[in-house]
Structures are given as C-alpha cells and as structure tokens.
Known about the structure:
Two copies of one chain form a homodimer.
Chain A: E1 10-16, E2 20-25, H1 30-36, E3 55-60, E4 63-65, H2 73-78, E5 80-82, E6 86-88, E7 92-95, E8 123-129, H3 141-153, E9 158-160, H4 162-174, E10 178-186, E11 189-197, E12 204-210, E13 214-221, E14 227-234, H5 244-253, H6 257-280, E15 287-294, H7 296-303, E16 325-326, H8 327-330, E17 339-342, H9 352-361, E18 370-375, E19 379-384, E20 389-394, H10 397-400, E21 415-422, E22 427-432, E23 440-441, H11 443-455, E24 474-477, E25 480-487, E26 493-497, H12 498-522, E27 531-535, H13 536-541, H14 544-550, E28 561-563, H15 567-577, H16 579-591, E29 592-594, H17 602-609
Amino acid sequence: xxxxxxxxxxxxxxxxxxxxxxxxxxxxxxxxxxxxxxxxxxxxxxxxxxxxxxxxxxxxxxxxxxxxxxxxxxxxxxxxxxxxxxxxxxxxxxxxxxxxxxxxxxxxxxxxxxxxxxxxxxxxxxxxxxxxxxxxxxxxxxxxxxxxxxxxxxxxxxxxxxxxxxxxxxxxxxxxxxxxxxxxxxxxxxxxxxxxxxxxxxxxxxxxxxxxxxxxxxxxxxxxxxxxxxxxxxxxxxxxxxxxxxxxxxxxxxxxxxxxxxxxxxxxxxxxxxxxxxxxxxxxxxxxxxxxxxxxxxxxxxxxxxxxxxxxxxxxxxxxxxxxxxxxxxxxxxxxxxxxxxxxxxxxxxxxxxxxxxxxxxxxxxxxxxxxxxxxxxxxxxxxxxxxxxxxxxxxxxxxxxxxxxxxxxxxxxxxxxxxxxxxxxxxxxxxxxxxxxxxxxxxxxxxxxxxxxxxxxxxxxxxxxxxxxxxxxxxxxxxxxxxxxxxxxxxxxxxxxxxxxxxxxxxxxxxxxxxxxxxxxxxxxxxxxxxxxxxxxxxxxxxxxxxxxxxxxxxxxxxxxxxxxxxxxxxxxxxxxxxxxxxxxxxxxxxxxxxxxxxxxxxxxxxxxxxxxxxxxxxxxxxxxx
Amino acid sequence: xxxxxxxxxxxxxxxxxxxxxxxxxxxxxxxxxxxxxxxxxxxxxxxxxxxxxxxxxxxxxxxxxxxxxxxxxxxxxxxxxxxxxxxxxxxxxxxxxxxxxxxxxxxxxxxxxxxxxxxxxxxxxxxxxxxxxxxxxxxxxxxxxxxxxxxxxxxxxxxxxxxxxxxxxxxxxxxxxxxxxxxxxxxxxxxxxxxxxxxxxxxxxxxxxxxxxxxxxxxxxxxxxxxxxxxxxxxxxxxxxxxxxxxxxxxxxxxxxxxxxxxxxxxxxxxxxxxxxxxxxxxxxxxxxxxxxxxxxxxxxxxxxxxxxxxxxxxxxxxxxxxxxxxxxxxxxxxxxxxxxxxxxxxxxxxxxxxxxxxxxxxxxxxxxxxxxxxxxxxxxxxxxxxxxxxxxxxxxxxxxxxxxxxxxxxxxxxxxxxxxxxxxxxxxxxxxxxxxxxxxxxxxxxxxxxxxxxxxxxxxxxxxxxxxxxxxxxxxxxxxxxxxxxxxxxxxxxxxxxxxxxxxxxxxxxxxxxxxxxxxxxxxxxxxxxxxxxxxxxxxxxxxxxxxxxxxxxxxxxxxxxxxxxxxxxxxxxxxxxxxxxxxxxxxxxxxxxxxxxxxxxxxxxxxxxxxxxxxxxxxxxxxxx
Lengths: 627, 627
C-alpha cells in the first residue's frame, strides 16, 4: 500500500504595518511567523503564553488559540491575541503594536566614542625581509621565516599551518624575499595566518557586544585602530524569550533549540557586519579577527555551547573562558579563518561583558576602591581595586527592564521615562520617550515612581499603598490595588499595582544587598567606595538621586558616579586592538573572586533589611530627605 | 550559430595479462591509461620518452608515437613502444612485460618485527575522575577538567577546541564525573581531542614509511603498543617518474601536477589502510593519529607542499619540519581530526626517513662512532655519535637502482641478483630472482659485476674493458663496447656496457667520497667507524664483501656491519608510541650538521680519487685481494 502525499498546507501571514507576508507550515504559530519575517517582537517568557508581551492584533482570518496570560479583558475584546499561542487555521493578517517591539534606540553603541590607541592588535600585518638562501645557508623556507620572526618578536611559540607552508616557497621567491606576514594571537600563541606580497591592503577586526536584548558591533581598522563603523540591532533571540533563563529553557526543551538560538544571534551579528561591509566597500574576507563580549549565557549560545547548567544549582557554565574558534567553524560571516575570541567571564552570572566593563574602568589597576554596576536583565556588580576584586550577581534587573510589570516596556517610543508626583499623589505628570502618547513605563520611570510614591506618601516604607479615598487614582484591579499613572492608547490606563511596587522594591533591595554583601566580605563600609561606574542601557537614563532615594544605590556624593556607556563593546574593542588590554583582562579575570549570594546567609539578611524604603537602617541614607 | 558537441571520443585500452580494460579520452597516452588501471608501471624519466622503462608491447590497434628513447632496434621490430609516448588512435590491446613493473617484493616491511614498548603514545586515552561542582566550588566544566589534567600531567599548555567544549557538560553529568579523556600531542602542545563515557574502545595509530618506490604502513594499538597489521605497496607515484627529481619536475610542469602526485601517494596509503582496517574490523574513525616518515620530496608531495626548490640550487625545501595537520585537511582516510605528523628532516636530501633511521640505530646516544647508510634512489649517510652528527647526500643510488643501466631493474622476478665470473671472464654464471629466465639485472648483481670484472681482469682500475678478442662476450653495441652477461627473453641478451660500468663506478665513488668527506670534516680516519648500519631495500640484498671490493663501502671487518631493515617505518612507529623516542628525535634532528657536498672542493677531490677500483689509494682497502 502506498500513501499519496501532497505538498503540506501553508498559511500566509501578512504583518502590518510592515506589509510583509510570510508563509508558514500548517501547525506553526504566529511567533514563528514573526521570527521568520525577522521582526523584533518581544517574547519575555519564551513562548509559554504567560507574559503577554507578544500581543498582536488579529485583523483578518482565524487562529486556534491557546493561553492568553497577560492580556486584559479589554484587549481580548479588542481582538488582541498572543502570537506564541495562536496557530493560523487559514491565511491571516495581524498588526504588531509598538509596545510589543524591541526598540533599536535602546542599543547603546558607545559612551564616549574615543578611538582606542592601537598597540598590538590581535591580528597584524608586518613586513619581513629575509636573507635569500645560499649553498652556505640552505635553511628551509619555513625555518628561515620562523627564525626571523622569533628574532623580531622575541616570542618563542610561533605556529604555521600547512596552508601557509603550501604557498610559502612561491610567495618568497616571487616577492624577492620581502613579504607581508600576518600574525594572529590566539590562546597565548602566535599563528602565521598569511604570507603575501607587500601591499597596502587594509585588514579589519570586529568587536561585538552580545547583549541579551541588543547587539552592538564595531569594525576597526587593524592598522590605524580607527573605528570605521559601529552599528546596533536587537538580538533576534528575543523571540525565544526576553531573559537568559527563558532562552536556556528554550534551548533545552526544543529539538535543535540551541541551534535555533545560535542561528538567531549569528543572524543578528552577520546582518550588522554585512551592512557595515557594504557601506565601507570592504570584503568579508578582509575581516581577519573577531572579539565578542557577552554575558555567560550569550557567549554559550553564540558558540553553540550547552547553557543548561547555568540555571541549575550550583550554576556551572560549560566554560568561563572558552577557547577561541575559527569564524567558519562558528558561523560568523567574516573571513572563515578569522580567530574568534569571547572575553572570559568569572561565573555563570558574571560574563565577559562584565570583565570588559571592569577593564574599561581601569579599576583593577587603581588604588581607589570602585564599584562597577551593570543593571540589565540581571544585576551584576564588581567591587575592588588593584589589590582585590569581588563580584556578585543578583536577579534584580527584570523588574526595571519591565519584567513582572504589566505595563513595563523598554525605553521605546511612548514609554514613560520620567514621573513627577506632587500634592501627596493627587498630581501626576509623566514624560514619555518621543513625547508620544504613553504606552507603558520603562526602568527610569519605575525608579521615579518608587521614589516619588514614597516621598509623597502614596506608599509606606514597606511599599504598601496608603489609601486616600478622595484620590481617584487609587483603584482595585484584577490583581489587587493599583494606582493610575496616565491614560494610554486604546483607552488603556497605565497603572502600577501594589504587587508590582513590591516587585520593584525586591529588585532595588537585591542590588543594594549585593553591594552590602560584597562590602561585608572585605569588611568595608559603604563610604569606602570612592567611585561608582554605571554601565549598560539602564544606567544611561537613570536619575541617580532618585535611585539613591529608593535605596537601590549607595548614598554617596553624585560626583562619585560615572556613566560608562557600552563598556562591553568598548572592552571588546580594547582587547581587539591592544596587547596591554589583553594582559590586563587576563590579570583581572584571574583576580576576581565570585561571591555566590545564594550560598551564605549574608545576602539574605541584607536583602530583608533592604526591603524597606530606602532601608531599615536609615543611617545608611543620610542625604535622603524624608518629609 | 550553435555548435553541436557529441560525447568526446574515448579509446578502450585492454591491458594483458591483467585483462583490465580502461577507457581514456582521445589524446591521452598509454601511461595515463595504465595509471588509471592502477598498474604499477615503472616510468623512470617521468614521461619524457627518454628512459625506455615504460616499454609495453602493442598487440592490437594503432597508436600515434612520439619518441622511443631507450628502445633497441630489436624491441622496436618486436612491437615494443613507450607507453608515455603512445597515444591510441583506436581501441588497443597492450601487454606489459615483467621488467616494466614495480615489484612488491621490494617493499621492506620491517627488519626485526619487534614491537616497540609503549611509553607515551602521541594519542592516548586516560580515565579522569572529577569532583562534582557545588555552590562552594562552582568552577566551570572546562576549567574543572583542565585543572585536573594539569594536576595529572604536570604540563601547563593543554588545549581544547570548541567541539569538545560543546559536548562537555552533557558527558560529564551523564557519566557521573568519571570520563575517558583522549589527549593528542601536536607541535609541543597537548590537545583534548575527545571526552567520552568510560569504555573499553580501542584506538589505533598509523605509522607510514613513504618511500619513493614503495610504501609500508603499520597500524598499532595505542593502548598495548601491539602492531596489529603491517602492509606494503608500490608508490602509485611511480608512473609519474621513478626518482624524486622526475616527480618534482612533473609537479612543476603539469597543471595540477602537485595535486596528482599528492593524490597518488594518498591513494596508495589509503589503500593500505583500508585493507588493514577491513582485515581487523576496525573503523577508520578509530585511527586517531598518524606518523609518516619519508624523504623530503615525499613528505612535500604527501602534504601538498611545493617541492620545486628542492632540486634547484641552493636546494631549499619549503619545510624540513612541517607542522602537523589534521588527516581530513591532508586527505588521509583515517579519523578526519587525527593529527598527522611528518618526521622532521635535515635538508632537501636528508629527510624524515633518515632521521627515523638514525633514531632506530640509537647512534645519537652512543659513545661509539657509527655510520648510517641508506642507498635508495639517492645515497644518504649520517656519521657520528652522541657528541656530534654529520650528514650528507649524494646522487649515488640511481645506477644501483637500475637508472642509467639499460638492463637495470629492481630485484624482481627474472632480475640477475648474483653474478659469478671466473676464468678471466670466459666463464659467467648468473642467479636470477625466482630462478626465472633473466630479464635484467638488479643492484646486487651490478655490484657483483663490478667486483668480479675487476678481479678477473675484464676491466682495468678505471673501468675500461681489457679486450680479449677470443672472448666472444665482448662486442660492440649501439653505445660502444659491451659485455654479454646472459641470454634473455625475446632473444634479448643482457649486456653491460663500458659506459654503464663507468656509471656504476661514479655511483660507488660518490658513496665512498661522501663517507670520506664527512670523516674529513671531523678529522677522523675510516678506521674510526666502529659500526655501519645499512638501511632500506638496497642494503637487504647487498653482498658486503663485494661492495667493499668495489670501493663503495669502507674496508672494515664484516662484523661492524649491521642491516636495519625498514628503519624509516620502525622510526615512525617509535615516534608514534614513545615519548622518549620523540624527545630523542627532536634532539638528534637539531644536532645533525648537513654537509652540502656541492659547496666545497673536498667532495670533488674525494670523488675523483674514488673513480678507480677500489680507490686511487689502495692503502684504504688493505683486505681487498688484488690478483
């Protein structure tokens, strides 16, 4: 008996306002269709139907729906569905609201834009003159070249592959024994990558900050050190989950999940690179080396390493310092032979993005004690000076990034970024990104809320609402009491609930408790911190005084605070171009002691003490003015 | 206008006695057809139409002929043609005479057959137990493994590729933190090649002697050191030329010539390997490492390195010590990731086969002064002891291998291997290999001729015939006076001419002059040599007393001479299995001083003095009995 099979049915999904139409096999959901169309949809929970972030409006056609977690009754009535839970049963048209999108403006490309001084790039072309062989000096070609290089470089271990040796006799003789030799450093060794006729050809290096949400890339001229181009994009992995945990789960629970996630991040980076190459009229073969900085999970997903055990106690990554690989073996579309380095991390939750940041601050060589804070999807901190360094990580960030906050969103168009509350909460003014009608609230707005709510007596020290019946902004929502911040689009009011305020307090408490735990380990008071470096997208929009008022950041003079910009990308560029940066990074990453907060009791005690506004111990926040 | 193209015409070539028929495109010659049929034809000059070695009998059909160098009038009349110069114009049938074939019995597989004691093979599997991670000890998987290996091995530089790191987390946990780790040594570093569940699986290493004419290969069990199989075959490169010079020329003068030659030697080795694997029921993936020993040209052709400058003054190879490569990148059909090592040579004419031989003798660690001689297609010699080593090479061999000797041939069926001459040359008896009717004369027969001719007064000290009109064995041939040794096949008499005798004298003179030149460099007399090691196929059949009588070898007591067998293969096996052998080889190859005979006047003077039988200075040969 044979079985006749026709073509499997496909569903056409038209996506507005893009006007893109993609065809997906029957049974695939809208999230997969949107990923296929390469539209940067947010999907915080990784397709579980729980977070409501991937809400889209069904305009035409029918879908088979699963869960609808995170959608309000009004949204359901208006035709919103969850992309991850909707399988088209016929051709459909959907609209993606702005609030469901990752916003490119969140990509921090750099803080200062200074070019890094070139001093020993990871790949360099040098001119070598050899004495031609004679009967008295008949040394073999490779031996002759190696002798001269050892003399010039003073280094012992220089490697050449068979590919180079194959072309060597011809090139040396055609060029009259004067050649360009390209040398790459990898894993502490020097590799002869290419021997060619002397020429003016320029070679480039790629530096990449692989963020969980956004990716920034920079092409640098390896001869001058000039940063020829820099670009950013959302990480295409976002459709598989908004934070590292949901992506690790996706990688583990889906067949070929790891490959999909690796493909997504590679697709993002390759897209950025090809755009820059086109603009600069550079061939991909001339990009000879790459340096990537990312958190430990991002590094694992980029290299195709199994991240499963990063999220399971005792939180062990496959490799904190993965070996360099060739671009071709990884799938990075530059010269396939280009060595691709990932900056070393310290632990599962202190990755190469953080060591890059510490490198950029220079704190590992300074006498003064400094604190480095990167609050992104996680909160990562490093404290110390040239004598010692201690690091910790707390899952603080998600609330500030909008996770666990119904109307939380990135600092995109329409996000409430500043909140001014006065008259005991009767008067509320909001400023949105782009002055657009408010569609949600981002991290800096949430910090403002917390600070102002407390100052104006809207909440008590524990974050509980102090109800005033005459204030109509208080109301009872689906999940308990909430406070109306503003009227929004689609007649949706932007609110913040008591539960969400408690979430925010837990987040700010985690950051401060982490800082105090590190200080306790070395027996120092908060005042010992002479400098605080803020990194990443969160630091950029943060009102430091407000953050101090909530008790998240130490109550220290504002001039001790400095904003670093994208220190992960900057660190990657430094490592690409400077031998001394590489030496410093190696030293510092060997020096950092990771403090596992889950391991002792200190963090827990500190956390409990920090669950008040600004803190149980008010002496820690002398400058905070309590009316 | 369009042009109709049919299939290009092909010619069928039937080859007897094999009964093989191959189809070749119009325009290709019979040598190409025979190569296609994988029949081991000799082609000394590499297809130049000069040497006459590739003579075949045209039985049916017509060919377009070019040159006919090396064919006698009788042979031409009998229908012999040169395969390299004959392009079929229709389907043909040809017969290949025995004397045109390379004989497999010439492959020396080993001298003694002793197994090498295993002490640190290049690839080894060890059992590693790791302490599982905990919150107090959350080191990453790779770091944990590297720490333990550094502790066990005491070595600092251990490398792991991304492939290993990718599977590491899963394997470690599935196996309960007790695993087999396979380690490879390459270029002075240790590589983690594989981490897997503990198992009894056996891994193998391949050792190969890549000779110009023949190739011998051995598979060794990497756990026990047992040599599981050993095999030999002719080098399929033979059809491109019999000696290294003609192959270098072929590689340079033909498009893709180098690729063809590389393909031929790889084809030979892959054939041997696959035969052994089939016999032993081993998968090619279980052969994890390879070590090859060959002369410098063979090593270049095997690795695809340009050999052009080996034959041009000042005789400089691409690499004496080429870097190891992965089998897959070279084309060797074992595990594609297997590191493939070629033993280091000293110069263009002292290759890895010779350093292997010196390793096997142990002379580089002994107090006594020893001489190592390998007379193959070239004559290569090393003199010295643990204090010093000097090496030279002279193009001595070809005459003894049959080159420049019309009836010269390898020690194959029908080759005259012993010649007994008495009664002043009136009585001549010949013994042939396999007692077959004589079809030519091989090296040992030629040495006998030279010694007996002189002893019986057939020739004078300079190699000139002393004519005796009553001896009908003297006659005038096409190329001057000659001496009939025996009647042969096809009514062809096996002769040796005065010109050929002069050739042989030049060859023996070159060997002795090389030995004397080395001795002079260190200021020692011949008697200082306490041991002489003879290597390779030539040494196996040599009558040492006769060789001394001609003045080729030093006049020393016969018990100082030792025959080594295939010391190239033995050395490769030692390097595969023994760390101390690798250390010794590295030391000795750094210690050998290469004496370029062409560079000074010493060799020339010694050569001129040695152009007499046995020598100008008879005091050097006191034991030679001159009637």
